[in-house]
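A quick aside before the break. I want you to see a complete sequence-to-structure record at least once, exactly as it would be stored in a machine-readable document. Don't worry about memorizing anything.
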Amino acid sequence: MSDQAKTLELIRQRPPRYALSSALYHSQDVYRQDLEQIWHSHWIFAGHSFEIPKAGDYLTLQIGDYPVVIVRGDKGEINAFHNACRHRGSRLCSAAKGKSAKLVCPYHKWTFGLDGKLLFAGNMGPDFSNADHNLLPVHCEVVNSFIYLCVAETPPDFEAFRADVTPFIAPHNLDDCKVAFESNIIEKGNWKLVFENNRECYHCDANHPELLNSFVENLSVAGVGGNDDPELTAHWDSCEAAGFPSRLVMDPKNGQYRMTRIPLAAGAVSYTMNGKPAVNGRLDTPDAEGKHLEDIGALLYFNYPSTWNHFLGDHALSFRILPLGHDQTLVTTKWLVHKDAQEGVDYDLDALTKVWLATNDQDRELVEETFRGTGSPSYTPGPFSEIAENGVCQFVDWYCQTMETRLSK
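That is the input. The structure line, written in tokens, reads:
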């Protein structure tokens, strides 16, 4: 039986509303199929356009098997290329971020323009054609500062997501932001466990005291509605009247993405220990009278398999996950503030980052302990709570449906 057939059989064995089996987290063969059918085939969040503001600024990342470099071109465009020299394959850029007037291979000095065209290749003889050895492009889309990449030969549609997410993000003016702080942690667990942990707050009472100073989960967070919750609908009405789309929007095809705005705990307007703003000033544009709606809660959006995000009145957070193996996942968190905000003047870095630095570390431990436990021969998947785990069930359903569709072709 092929690896594809084995993975498909494992997925089909899962009962509805049950957790995944051990092999779906621990099998190297399943991980290979995860890469091929999901990570190498879908749009992956890479970073923000404001992180590479000038020509020659670049970011790098590893999408499964593919090293990729994103670079700002001479005309202001954002280009993405496979980060492998067209000579003998050395990575052109090894740093996570940097700046270079041209992309120069460190091995033999082949030199590429910021548009990917080969400009110089020494000692290659008179019959060599530069035009035949340009960098290989990677599909790249930018929406409200979010850079998405797809390494597949033919990418899936992006425009439906763009149309749905833009009205939610646009009022937060992310193009006028900067990264105040970036955290990178490696969680010793399968990438699916990382996203599962994010998609429920059943574990919050026992594990996230800092977060619960401000965050309150509700049905809309789980992605299963919320129209019957008077507090939530009142919050939506208030935000939408001020120009902030709020009611749940979910990918109608298979639930791959979702956007919704939620109220925070009573008296809280930001993710801080006391619920007060972490940053002086706002990201959103004031109304005609120069006023802001003080309490807009938090806009939450995810897009499987690589990102979840939180937008508040004073700052925003973007989260990205990238698999490093069947047993390791890189989690990157970026705290975004207005580009003119000054540390020590407009915000205190500890106050800004304390809640989510603590929450991320707590989640890391939970993921790692779950990965260890699911590796036991005695592990038997249990049922999801119909009260508190609808969000995680929705993610697992998406994963299984996506894999079954692709593996059945």
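Two observations worth writing down. The chain has a mean pLDDT of 96. The longest strand covers residues 177-187. We'll return to this after the break.
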